[in-house]
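User: Could you go from structure to sequence for me? I need the amino acid at each position, not a summary. Structure tokens:
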């Protein structure tokens, strides 16, 4: 039913979203542990950094990810991704819409953050190879804003032909509901940034996913 994002993303259905401010230890050390646990990919989402700062950090994270054959997806800065020769990029939809067709086609993996069915359809039309959709469940990252829920996720999954990754409050305990709604996988930020054992944490998702089969 779904296309693969790329052949390097075979290990897991979980995309790691980074946030170094949630990391209680050295950020790059945590990145290395996560990369070694082989998530689907790691999206370097450090949006508070300047483009120069982000590019410098991106070079380090790409190096770590390559060491473990884990895909690194850069975020927010297409030009920085180009200079780093990284063909994987995730963008807010508003930034994606400003890119030319040629610029978009320069990336083999292209994702966008979507918050409505309209967003999802636009992202698909613009050539995204996957999208993230949320937030699905209540989460501390969106305190006071109710999650959009599984029906919202299910509708989008039924209307687009590219992989949908749910984001927002996703845990091993609710991954089964997310997959049953039609999502290809899910995004996790806090859990992976804070865990001392990313391998065990991702295995917990797999165990629950296998219950679906």
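Assistant: Here is the amino acid at each position, in order:
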């Amino acid at each position: 039913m779904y296309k693969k994002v790329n052949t390097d993303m075979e290990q897991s259905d979980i995309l790691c979203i980074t946030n170094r401010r949630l990391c209680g230890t050295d950020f790059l050390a945590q990145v290395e542990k996560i990369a070694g646990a082989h998530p689907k990919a790691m999206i370097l989402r450090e949006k508070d950094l300047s483009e120069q700062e982000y590019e410098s950090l991106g070079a380090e994270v790409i190096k770590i990810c390559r060491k473990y054959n884990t895909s690194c997806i850069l975020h927010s800065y297409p030009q920085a991704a180009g200079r780093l020769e990284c063909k994987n990029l995730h963008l807010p939809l508003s930034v994606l819409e400003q890119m030319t067709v040629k610029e978009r086609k320069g990336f083999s993996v292209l994702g966008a953050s979507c918050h409505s069915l309209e967003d999802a359809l636009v992202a698909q039309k613009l050539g995204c190879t996957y999208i993230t959709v949320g937030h699905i469940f209540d989460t501390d990252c969106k305190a006071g804003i109710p999650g959009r829920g599984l029906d919202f996720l299910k509708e989008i999954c039924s209307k687009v032909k590219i992989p949908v990754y749910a984001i927002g409050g996703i845990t091993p305990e609710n991954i089964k509901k997310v997959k049953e709604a039609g999502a290809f996988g899910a995004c996790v930020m806090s859990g992976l940034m804070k865990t001392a054992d990313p391998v065990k944490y991702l295995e917990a998702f797999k165990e629950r996913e296998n219950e679906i089969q």
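One structural detail worth keeping in mind: DSSP finds ten helices and eight strands in the chain.
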